[in-house]
Amino acid sequence: MKVTLIHNSKAGDDDQPSKDVLLSLMKQAGYEVNYQSAKDDNWVAALENPGDLVVAAGGDGTVGKVAKRLVGQQTPMAVLPLGTANNIAKTLGLMDSPLEQLIAEWATAPRIKVDSAIASGAWGKTHLIESLGMGLFAQTMSKADNDSNLEQTPAAEDELKAVLNLLKQQVSQCSARSLTLSLDGQDISGEYVLLEVMNIQYVGPNLHLVPKVGFNDGLLTVVLVREGEQNKISDYLADCLAGNCDLAPFTQYQGKHLQIQGEEFDIHVDDKILTSSSLAAPGDPIVVDVKVVPQSLEFLLPKT
């Protein structure tokens, strides 16, 4: 079995296995491995002839950028969760299996076709693997990207707690936006402090926003928190900090196509921030379009 391994050696904390350890485990399992560093752009060219399986070893950022390159392709993808949050791996049910077991089972592991999405607007078009959002999470991601203290947090668990605390601090500073929203033609417009279009169950520091994802049901889940419901967010984050991060009590809708229109807000598309200036020309409203792309990726699941 020929495997292309795309590895982010900087993902997660210092406890993650090295390149040599990963290669040793794969060769012991009988795989022929083409190793590529996620920090080197050569990995993109390696996907032109990926072999039988593409493996993303890293966090959600690494998994997401590899998955975007495989949308619509026939090559299946496996995930080795080495990051901090590992929201994609968590949704796929991979977190309870040791890496050695995941690797050994690739040749016979069950496979599943999963949905992705396409987000488009004035900036262009991009594939969406995890989620797209406006409001609290997008605002906090901008802050977190510029927070040097987070980069110095040694353990993944401590970093997740630090991000939870940062989110909690931002709730009172997050202004609501008037959004015109159309989901498959249904008007769900309103004043919102949080909007997340979810393709997986979790976002950010393992926040559980969607109860169960139908991997290939052709539907996106739209999660909303209105102006005046900030206490729902604060209470939920407090529960998460106390170790009780169950399903968030936020409003949910499901659909195939969401159109978003409003003024002066940033969004995140997976782990990338798009500022309001890139979303519309000066004086024009922001228009963002999100459509599901059914069964456009194939992932390996753990054996039960």
Can you count the helices?
10
Helical proportion?
25-40%
Please give the number of β-strands.
18
The CATH topology of the largest domain corresponds to: Tumour Suppressor Smad4
The H/E string reads EHEHEHEHHEEEHHHEEEEEEHEEEEHE
The gross shape turns out to be: globular
Give the structural class: alpha+beta
Beta fraction of the residues? 25-35%
Task: Profile the largest sheet.
Answer: 12 strands, antiparallel
In short:
Helix content is 27%, strand content 35%. The protein has helices at 19-28, 42-46, 60-70, 87-92, 99-104, 136-145, 148-151, 156-170, 230-241, 276-279; strands spanning 2-7, 32-37, 53-58, 77-81, 111-121, 124-128, 131-135, 177-183, 186-187, 190-198, 202-203, 207-208, 220-226, 251-255, 257-262, 267-269, 272-274, 286-300. It is globular and about 55 Å long.
